[in-house]
Specification:
The chain has 474 residues and is mostly beta strands. It is built from 3 helices and 30 strands. Strands 1, 2, 19, 20 and 21 form a 5-stranded antiparallel beta sheet that branches. The longest helix is centred in the N-terminal third of the chain and has 11 residues.
Amino acid sequence: MSTKLILLTSFVLALGLAVEVANADFTFGTPTNLGPTVNGSDDVIGVSISADGMELYFASNRAGGYGNYDLWITTRDTIDDEWGTPMNLGPNVNSQYPCMAPSISADGLQLFFSDWEYGTMIPGGVGSTDTWMVTRETKDAAWSAPVNVGRPVNYTGGDICPNMSADGLSLYFASGAARGGSGFYDLWVATRATINDPWGQPVNLGPTVNSSAADVAPSLSADGLALFFGRTFTGQDFDLWMTTRATEDDAWGPPVKLAAPVNTSAVEAFPSISADGSTLYFCSDRAGGSGQNDLWQVPIVPVVDLNGDGIVDSADMCIMVDHWGENYPLCDIGPMPWGDGIVDVQDLIVLAEHLFEGITPVEPEEVRVNENDDGSQVEIEQGQILVVTLESNPTTGYRWEQVENQESYLEQMGEAEFKPSETGEPPLVGAGGWEIFRFKAISAGQMTLQLVYHRSWEEGVEPLKTFSIQVVVR
């Protein structure tokens, strides 16, 4: 620990501690694709990061396997290294039967998964799809053959996407409507008193967490206070959601859909949170990938610039000191980005790691449309920027103008910008170009964005061109 951090810690500890619940402020960075070494033209269904961050398990139908979907692993020597070439877990684990949605235990000795494809399940199961596991004696040993987890975890209606807590005492999974609950698939948890005890009767996470949609693929944080999962209303519109709780004895709070740039109009599913809470891995078919679903990662960043002045300094430390031990969400930033229920030395450590650093604002993700999108529907997340680019020539007197401004959903950002045509020569007087409008999505809803190309002084004259799109803000 640095001298600076020791001094700061001693100073704050002298103020005394008061235990109250607090929630952290954090944001997500820019998602990045894991690259062509890991991803290919195949489909990936499920991902799981090991507790030490050196192993990444996933399910894929890529060439070189034994069945439709096999379990694979990619490894690295250090956190800073690139992921290596994926290796198939071999014929003892994989077969002609599908293996999907893997989840590695914290000790690395148990690997849970689902035989998730109706009609081709592993023989000896309980229901239409089941939770299975393979084990190994040490991390260097070979994996065993699959073993069915059995009842009461598995049920006749189908059980998928298992995820075990770091202490090995809770098993989260998704189960079909036949078991009961709120939707097509609900999130459930089975618990046991010790790792040597059998699993108890599963409990539904309840209507606060579960919806009328399909809620699947849970991923529990190592501290047990955050639960990431996927939700789909149609089977095609998967998004990532998150629910938190103050302590492991408290109920889960209302889920929140992760904002852009994590969720997009593409599929985002099968989250896996790293043990330190700094990185979320997931599957997505968004643009920029190699295959049907690729593996992506996104950093989770605590908000350490507490006063928003662009630098982390003594002013931010004073804010934390002023709210020491209080129920103050802004300052509860450690040890996980979502905090631990109290503003204390753990939060000070996180703040001290960033002292005197400049903070670069994260630019919101842009969704771009042009005249080719006329008449279409565009989906955009709250916080994203909708950029509308339309051909124009202001020297003729014609300009684009919005017909109706529904600022409850979209807020126009300044005046339209004119960009002349790029001909490689200096712009000619009277040459055309494009008018560029920017709108920020500020609340959920649906609206029609309509612009007309006209001379504003000509009353009663039909516009030369119109542009209209349906905008859905999620």
